[in-house]
Amino acid sequence: MTTLNDVAKLAGVSTMTVSRVINGSGYTSPAAQARVNQAIAELGYMPNVLARQLRSSRTKTLGLVLTDIANPFFTTIARGVEDAARAQGYAVMFCNTDESVDLELEYVRVLIQRRVDGVLLVPAADSSTSLDLLRTHKLPVVVLDRRLRFGEADQVRADSEGGAYDAVRHLIDLGHREIAILVGPESVSTSADRVAGYRRAMIEAGLDPASQQIRFGKYTEASGHEMTCHLLAAPTRPTAIFAGNNFIAFGAMQALRESGLEIPDDMSIVVFDDLPQGWIIPFLTVIAQPAYQIGKKAAELMLERLASDEPIEPRTFVLRSSLIVRRSSAPPRSTSKQPAPARARSMENPA
Amino acid sequence: MTTLNDVAKLAGVSTMTVSRVINGSGYTSPAAQARVNQAIAELGYMPNVLARQLRSSRTKTLGLVLTDIANPFFTTIARGVEDAARAQGYAVMFCNTDESVDLELEYVRVLIQRRVDGVLLVPAADSSTSLDLLRTHKLPVVVLDRRLRFGEADQVRADSEGGAYDAVRHLIDLGHREIAILVGPESVSTSADRVAGYRRAMIEAGLDPASQQIRFGKYTEASGHEMTCHLLAAPTRPTAIFAGNNFIAFGAMQALRESGLEIPDDMSIVVFDDLPQGWIIPFLTVIAQPAYQIGKKAAELMLERLASDEPIEPRTFVLRSSLIVRRSSAPPRSTSKQPAPARARSMENPA
DNA sequence: AAGAGGTGTGTTATCGTTACCATAGCATAG
DNA sequence: CTATGCTATGGTAACGATAACACACCTCTT
Does B49 sit within 8 Å of A113, measured CB to CB? Predict the structure, then answer.
């Protein structure tokens, strides 16, 4: 491996001059620059980032800890993060925790040991020891997607409560009265918030609280399948399902198919989370989250904090989600009520 | 930041002893180990990986350069790579080139500068200057998914030619005679190989070479859409389409829908590449590639090479792909021929 | 003419760790 | 009793880069 020193010798200057030419820092004469660049080209020199980082104690690297990298919602977030980071010369290390607190902690350790400049985190659970660890090592943190009980870090997420409200309200407007909600773990803030939005819409519509059907599970297809099977077996079968994320929706759809139920004729479905275009025949009515924007905003907050000399107060951004009405939601089959017009904010691919 | 030295002072030993305790290298007494571990816990010490890597000139990190991280085929490969790497204590840096040769080169530069121990590469084009660069820097390389003109690196890929042959043969057995193939760029080996398999099947069936309909484009939805539109506008419309990857298939399906054509009644579709289960109502007849295995095998070859003292001759592994018959392929509507029984190797979710 | 300030370059001292060599105690072998 | 080898530890010198300081040479001011 050729080093700065090799280049310096060949160019007949000191290593510092070479360093200055490469980094564009300090003064260098055009003559020196020319000779250095010549030598670099000749030797095919590539700087050793490790040494640079060790000396300067800055890695220009961010850690991004996600709970499920197979979920397009999170890959889209990752893209937003990466684009924003790369625009300022930062690299991103991706870590996938599969919703495991232990794995999360392990990855945070790795990130600290690799001396990343900051960590963007989707916490697997609310009471996070990872956050404590990060704090003791004085690493700046931005929390994505999920709410934090104690607001000691920057936070960026979509409006789960409002989005859920819109979704359920849409179903109510279509004439549904028996609406079930299937979400992830109760300990994850998005679940709680989506249930809160559901409750608000149900109560506001004057529906009997006893008609609320709320099920907590996991944000996985298997869990969605299971919860739906339970729903269908229950005495009062709902006419509409609000799925807490896209995987739950897939599981639900699978269960409905197995039971020979048609969407939306026998059961309406609304989903929190959109999918990238084109993956599926546009079919599902969804609450679309600005995933890319969440990632981008989070990275920008972090970079701003890293660039600033003075300490910055923790900030929280809650981005709007939007209802997109497609073909998986319709008035219930056996309703005599006149469905009110849908209060959709946007329409896409109307059937 | 606490350092080895801080730990050493607190434990009352030399830094080397601390280093040895941490790495389990050399001799250390139980007494020393206890005091060192005590001191580490007390200080919350975390090793500086940067310094370690600089000193040992090994990063225990692999670079993985992919052409499209949004494609589940490649994310599955990535999982295989990561699992195999992590099993041996290696980390993975992911890079996404979007099929751009320039981006690929840029990322390879980054990987070299970060001193990764080896690079796993899906080359964006056949004549790859990135490979030259990697070779001059003496970095071991494994090429994934695509064939290399010059065999100077380890290679792991699925059998594109054989898979394509099986796909087309399946269509022919169903009674199709006018079969079109839509693939990616001609310069990418998978395109060429899939066309070769198509040709072999067509010729073997004794079909007029003039009936071959081959279109090169890109491995994207937009390109699949465009190519299909051209197909439909042509004088001799095919009765079946063989899509070179899943994105091309999505574009094709979109185009068919726009033209009011039903699958498989008006047009059969077979696709190279499977999707993760559950994303779509199992519908598409596909050639499933062992994506996870490709990634795993590639990482294992790399790790083996890194662990070995003696040089290893370049090796090539071609993994079998398998036909999975689902509902998107059926006999052509207006054929009078008796369809031969499908030569499917496996059946899944038969309609 | 003397100081001020910009320009260009070099020297030295680290960043935090491990490679390498040295040393010292003690047991066993011959 | 010396030789050999194992155990346990420490000292020193890098790894390849940059920060900080020093210095020399200009060109302007005043």
Answer: yes
**CB of A13 nearer than 7 A to strand C:** yes
Nucleotide nearest to B16 (CA to C1'): D10
Rounded distance, CA B83 to CA B78, Å? 9
Task: Name the residue of chain B whose CA is nearest to A137's CA.
Answer: B1
Q: Across the interface, do A70 and B69 touch by the CB < 8 Å criterion?
A: no
The residue length of chain B stands at 351
Indicate the DSSP class of residue B347.
E
Is domain B160-289+322-347 given the CATH code 3.40.50.2300 in the classification?
A: yes
Tally the residues of chain A: 351
Give A152's pLDDT tier (boundaries 50, 70, 90): confident
Tell me the residue type at B265.
Answer: D
Q: What mean pLDDT is reported for chain A?
A: 90
Instruction: Spell out the long-range contacts of B138-142 with Cβ–Cβ below 8 A and sequence spacing 24 or more.
Output: B139/B111, B139/B112, B140/B302, B140/B305, B140/B306, B142/B118, B142/B298, B142/B299, B142/B301, B142/B302
In CATH terms, the superfamily for domain A59-158+291-319 is: Response regulator (3.40.50.2300)
Nucleotide nearest to B25 (CA to C1'): C18
pLDDT digit string (tens) for B27-68? 999 999 999 999 999 999 999 999 999 999 999 999 999 998
- Specify whether the CB–CB gap between A170 and A325 falls below 8 A: yes
Picking from B13, B128, B122, the residue whose alpha carbon sits closest to that of residue B66 is B122
B351 touches chain A (CB under 8 A): no
Arithmetic mean of pLDDT, A147-164: 91
Report residue B43 as tokens: 């200080």
Alpha helices in B180-275 (DSSP H): 189-204, 221-233, 246-258
Q: What beta strand segments (E) does A18-109 contain?
A: 61-66, 91-96
Q: What is the pLDDT of residues A292-342, one digit of tens each?
A: 999 999 999 999 999 988 889 999 999 999 999 999 999 998 644 444 444
Q: Report, in ranges, which bases of strand C sit under 7 Å from a protein C-beta.
A: 7-12, 14-20
**Token representation of residue B204:** 């073997």
Q: What is d(CA B332, CA B175) in angstroms, rounded to the nearest whole number?
A: 6
- Number of Cβ within 10 Å of residue B50's Cβ equals 21
- Interchain proximity B115–A254, CB inside 8 Å: no
The count of C-alpha atoms lying within 13 angstroms of the C-alpha of A121, restricted to the half-sphere facing its C-beta, is 33
Q: Where are the domains of chain B?
A: 4-47, 59-158+291-319, 160-289+322-347
pLDDT recorded at residue A186: 92
Whole-number pLDDT of residue A346: 40
Determine the Cα–Cα distance for residues B322 and B342; give it in Å rounded to an integer.
14
CB of B124 closer than 8 Å to CB of B148? no
Instruction: Indicate whether B335 pLDDT > 80.
Output: no
Taking a C-beta distance cutoff of 8 angstroms, is the pair A146, A328 a contact? no
Question: Given this chain, do its domains B4-47 and B59-158+291-319 carry the same CATH topology?
Answer: no
Q: Name the token pair of A55.
A: 């000396």
Tally A–B CB contacts below 8 A.
75
Q: Which residues on neighbouring strands pair with residue B271, listed in sequence order?
A: B243, B286
Contact assessment for residue A155 and residue A189, using Cβ atoms and an 8 Å cutoff: no
Decide if A112 and B46 are in contact by the 8 Å CB cutoff.
yes
CATH topology of domain B4-47: 434 Repressor (Amino-terminal Domain) (1.10.260)
